[in-house]
């Protein structure tokens, strides 16, 4: 699997384009910037964009989803139902952040940990519901790669003081759903540098020496 990161989004949010190099099926995880650049990459490589996967409903992670959907109308926009209320608050979020209002993307399908047949090439895309940063926050696991949204960062975790946030929930999500994964899994977060599960178990300051 090839992964391209576009980390220059609003508030430093990162957009990821991942695609299977054999089938050329692709997915976008969140969409916060670089629409024209990503479109060019998709067309040049002849990638078949299947999904635009949303990790959670904060405006910085859906900032360009509607624009991307206009360019690739067959790609399905997917998210967890528990963040639909948060998504509907995107205009309010923009106002509170002091930025121009954006178009709220339409959702084509809802997903959760029971979702089946979500694939990239021959590989299943597994959904891990990691509430804590928001009620409907999810991570996407594709083989040995985890797209963690704003749940887990390199040596940090997502903030819990926004609507739907809860520190105990994010702590539980990370300890019991992410830290049980293989330590060699590479983590691609919604902001900042990539990391691994093993590194976070050892060095993340929010968890001390529990691991």
Commentary on this structure:
- The protein is α/β, with parallel strands linked by helices.
- It has one domain (2-207): Metallo-beta-lactamase, Chain A, CATH 3.60.15.10.
- It has 7 helices and 14 strands.
- It has helices at 35-45, 59-62, 65-71, 84-88, 90-97, 167-178, 197-203; strands at 2-6, 15-19, 25-29, 48-53, 76-79, 109-110, 119-120, 123-129, 138-142, 145-149, 152-153, 156-157, 186-189, 195-196.
- The protein is globular and about 45 Å long.
- The mean pLDDT is 95.
Short description:
The chain is an alpha/beta fold and 211 residues long. 26% of the residues lie in helices and 27% in strands. It has helices spanning 35-45, 59-62, 65-71, 84-88, 90-97, 167-178, 197-203; strands spanning 2-6, 15-19, 25-29, 48-53, 76-79, 109-110, 119-120, 123-129, 138-142, 145-149, 152-153, 156-157, 186-189, 195-196.
Fold blueprint:
Layout: E1 2-6, E2 15-19, E3 25-29, H1 35-45, E4 48-53, H2 59-62, H3 65-71, E5 76-79, H4 84-88, H5 90-97, E6 109-110, E7 119-120, E8 123-129, E9 138-142, E10 145-149, E11 152-153, E12 156-157, H6 167-178, E13 186-189, E14 195-196, H7 197-203
Parallel strand pairs: 3-4, 4-5, 5-6, 10-13
Antiparallel strand pairs: 1-2, 2-3, 7-8, 8-9, 9-10, 11-12, 13-14
Descriptive terms for the model:
Metallo-beta-lactamase, Chain A, six-stranded mixed β-sheet
| Largest sheet, strands/sense/barrel | 6 strands, mixed
**What count of helical segments does DSSP give?**
7
- Uncertain spans, ≥5 residues at pLDDT below 50? none
Based on CA atoms alone, the radius of gyration comes out at: 16 Å
One letter per element, helices H and strands E, the order comes to EEEHEHHEHHEEEEEEEHEEH
Fraction of residues in helix = 25-40%
Report the end-to-end length measured between terminal Cα atoms.
29 Å
Structural class: alpha/beta
């Amino acid at each position: 699997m090839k992964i391209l990161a576009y980390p220059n989004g609003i508030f430093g949010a990162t957009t990821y384009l991942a695609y299977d190099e054999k089938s050329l099926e692709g997915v976008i995880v969140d969409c916060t910037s670089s629409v024209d650049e990503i479109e060019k990459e998709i067309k040049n490589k002849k990638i078949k964009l299947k999904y635009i996967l949303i990790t959670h409903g904060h405006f910085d992670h859906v900032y360009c989803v509607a624009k991307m959907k206009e360019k690739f109308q067959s790609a399905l926009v997917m998210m967890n139902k528990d963040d639909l209320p948060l998504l509907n608050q995107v205009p309010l979020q923009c106002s509170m952040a002091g930025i121009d209002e954006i178009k709220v993307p339409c959702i084509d399908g809802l997903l959760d940990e029971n979702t089946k047949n979500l694939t990239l090439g021959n590989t299943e895309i597994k959904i891990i519901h990691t509430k804590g940063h928001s009620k409907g926050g999810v991570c996407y696991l594709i083989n040995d790669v985890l797209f963690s949204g704003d749940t887990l960062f390199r040596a940090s975790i997502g903030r819990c003081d926004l609507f739907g946030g809860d520190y105990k929930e994010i702590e539980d999500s990370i300890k019991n759903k992410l830290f049980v994964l293989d330590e060699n899994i590479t983590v691609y977060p919604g902001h900042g540098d990539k990391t691994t599960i093993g590194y976070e178990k050892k060095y993340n300051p929010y968890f001390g020496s529990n691991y």
